[in-house]
Specification:
single chain; alpha+beta; Arc Repressor Mutant, subunit A; 6 helices
């Protein structure tokens, strides 16, 4: 179950924060899109995605060999509000990363 503490722990890591902000902006992204946008190795991205999924922040779906991630439909309103509040300063902080994700 997602709690304020678990949300803060997840978003306290810069890579996980960037993933959440990209997904808040793009709705759904494939692992390969996240790897390209973040410029991190695939195992690193997958490890962060697993932590976010396990915390209840993300949902995934498989389409052939690809796995697509999106923010969970089950996020409580307070968590959605928190992510929305972080999105505005995140647009400035992570401008290049978000732009790369928008190209996907």
């Amino acid at each position: 179950m997602l709690t304020p503490v678990s949300l803060c722990r997840c978003l306290g890591d810069e890579t996980r924060l960037q993933i959440v902000l990209m997904l808040a902006q793009q709705t759904e992204l494939c692992v390969c899109d996240l790897v390209d946008s973040l410029a991190v190795p695939q195992p690193t991205a997958s490890r962060h995605l697993a932590k976010l999924r396990d915390a209840g922040l993300l949902m995934d779906r498989r389409q052939g060999q690809w796995i697509y991630y999106r923010l969970s439909d089950q996020l409580p309103p307070w968590a959605r509000d928190c992510i929305a509040a972080l999105s505005e300063p995140g647009k400035t902080l992570y401008k290049r990363t978000l732009q790369r994700a928008a190209c996907c």
